[in-house]
Amino acid sequence: MSAVQPARRVAYETLRAVHESDAYANLLLPRAIARAGLSTQDAALATELTYGTLRRQGTYDAIITEASSRNVHEIDPPVLDALRLAVHQLLHTRVASHAAVNESVSLAREAVGNSATGFTNAVLRRVARETPGEWMSRIDAAARSDDERLGLHTAHPVWIVRAFRRALAAEGRADELDALLAADNVSPGVTMAALPGLSESPDGAQRTPYSPIGFRLGGGDPDPVVRASEGRVRVQDEGSQLAALALTRATAVREGERWLDLCAGPGGKTAVLAAEALAGGAVLEANEIMPARAGLVRAAIAGVPLTVEVSEEDGRDRARRALGRYDRILVDAPCTGLGALRRRPEARWRKTPSDVPDLARLQAGLVDAALRALAPGGIVAYVTCSPHLAETSAVVADARRAWGDRIEELDARAVLEGLSESPLDLPAPADGSGRAQLWPHRHGTDAMFISLLRRV
């Protein structure tokens, strides 16, 4: 029996946890690497195998179906994950084919017994006999539409391809779809934030092009920098930084303002709000319905010398108990997460179109409750890490219809341009809305949506 190399075992066990327990690889994999004591080289291999396999799972499933003459739903899940891992190595890495095949056969045997050996070996040797181009031609021929073919080539479900096309078309940029889908398949670089007024980017760091508090290290592990800062420097996507700053810097802060982060977990934006509140003499409160995530919020703001009360309840109830109380509220609403597929590649296969209506109703409820909690002149920043129009412009349009002339939408694009260190390409939507949409392919950020609504 072939011994399984530690990096492959870590990758395989992470895939199993993602598919068995709905775990997120970006949270689970670093712990698995540390437990296994992998070298830097093996850790890089485990990361590439895990993320590469998850990212292209749908494409690999189509190839496995073709090679095995069996629908993937008929294959034992542990065997299927071993096949996916091997197919990634055979078609998209320089790993020797015999190592990819033999070790995946061993993983399948360990998981379900000798009965899986012959099937796994036969499928993988079938895959290894043809080139990646030949396999793509095979699955192209089986595609039922141009969108399905595009989805197979770019490893996106058809419904996401279509949602992205509609969102880009709303900006008159439908021709950017290929670039967006390609960007989703590139691992993002590490972006850091130095909390304003509390820290600065270290010497030698490269400033980010847009966020005034963002920077990138020249390379290496960011953890020592984060630990040395005592919580005042953190890893944070530049789009996330801009979303928080859009609220705090939309208008001048008056001392004594009351702010609320309504859906605060895991706390990255809360930390930026806390630093800004400290600098401006504002009071900040936070809320997170999930106790574990509320704990992450408390940890995230520990480095800011400001008392921040963190409650744990449904944000709609939290806001409705505080009518007219707040001057600024961040609604970073639960969403499909389609804007963060670069860092959470499994989300593209986990989410379905049926998730969207329930999320949109929740988002609309959170925005309505937040508007009720605003004092006159107060601002709600509605933010999602998704460009899906049902979660973005439709939610804002519903709020504007319901509230009429009691609210106005500010120009979020102008606010971001005023913050940015470099020009931002933020085309105006056809409907004349002031909303802003960031994109991985255009800005190098997660696809963050930002709308600013002011209570008149």
SSE topology:
Elements: H1 6-21, H2 25-36, H3 40-55, H4 57-68, H5 77-92, H6 97-112, H7 117-128, H8 132-142, H9 146-154, H10 158-169, H11 177-183, E1 192-194, E2 206-207, E3 214-216, H12 223-228, E4 233-235, H13 238-248, E5 258-261, H14 268-280, E6 283-287, H15 291-300, E7 309-311, H16 315-320, E8 326-332, H17 347-350, H18 355-372, E9 374-384, H19 393-403, E10 407-409, H20 412-419, E11 436-437, H21 440-443, E12 449-455
Parallel strand pairs: 5-6, 5-8, 6-7, 8-9
Antiparallel strand pairs: 1-3, 1-4, 2-3, 9-12, 10-12, 11-12
How would you characterize the overall build of this protein?
The longest helix is centred in the last third of the chain and has 18 residues, at 355-372. By secondary structure, the protein is of the alpha/beta class. Helix 15 (291-300) links the parallel strand 6 and strand 7. The mean pLDDT is 96. It is 50% helix and 12% strand. The strands form 2 sheets. Strands 5, 6, 7, 8, 9, 10, 11 and 12 form an 8-stranded mixed beta sheet that branches.
Short description:
The protein is α/β, with parallel strands linked by helices. Helices cover 50% and strands 12% of the residues. Strands 5, 6, 7, 8, 9, 10, 11 and 12 form an 8-stranded mixed sheet that branches. It has a 4-stranded antiparallel sheet with strand order 2-3-1-4.
Structural category is: alpha/beta
Give start-end ranges of low-pLDDT stretches.
Answer: none
Mean pLDDT: 96
Give a quick account of the main beta sheet: strands, pairing sense, barrel closure.
8 strands, mixed
Span between N and C termini?
A: 72 Å
Assembly state of the chains shown: single chain
